[in-house]
Amino acid sequence: MKCMEYVARTMPFAVRRTVKWGDCDPAGVVYTATFADYVIAAAEAFYAQLLGEGSQHAKDRHGFGTPSRALTFDFRRSLRPDDEFEIEVRVGEIRSRSYELLMRGVDLRGEDVFIACLTPICVARGERRGIEIPAIFRQALQAYRDQCGQPSA
Questions:
Q1: What are phi and psi of 108, to 5 degrees?
Q2: How many other CB atoms are found less than 10 A from the CB of residue 10?
Q3: Are 125 and 60 in contact (CB under 8 A)?
């Protein structure tokens, strides 16, 4: 059986996915909303890599959550069942309570499928109260950003 999603590389971090038939509408292209699922899944895998354990366990241990404050897309091409693509994750601006994850979806020829910007905000776990990005997480985001560099436009 083929794995439908896995970490393809860690620097820059990228997740490779295969489009499932159920991800698509009757016309055979990926539902727009499914792209948000792809981006959130890539973010969770990225957090696990950064924090060295499952993302939800790490956030529980450090007492914070990361709900989305904003999510934007620029779609460049459609995807169909069995298409493979990668989502590369870079860190953009790091603010006091929120940060940007800049994601680029590319097909296996290296052509853009989408450009996305996910802006999570840190909240106290179990509350709807914004908090400063925890130091351990801020340091991990900054170290990755410094090592990885800024994405190309």
A1: -75, -5
A2: 12
A3: yes
Query: What pTM was computed for the model?
Result: 0.94
For the record, the structure tokens of 35 come out as 């792209």
Query: String of b and e for 11-40 (b: at least 16 CB within 10 Å)?
Result: ebbbbbbbbeeebbeeeebbeeebbeebbe
Which tokens in the block code for residue 32? Answer: 């727009």
C-alpha span between 76 and 74 (Å, rounded): 6
**Using one digit for the tens of pLDDT, what is the confidence trace for 65-124?**
999 999 999 999 999 999 999 999 999 999 999 999 999 999 999 999 999 999 999 999
Fold of 5-148: Thiol Ester Dehydrase; Chain A (3.10.129)
DSSP bridge pairs for 115: 74, 104
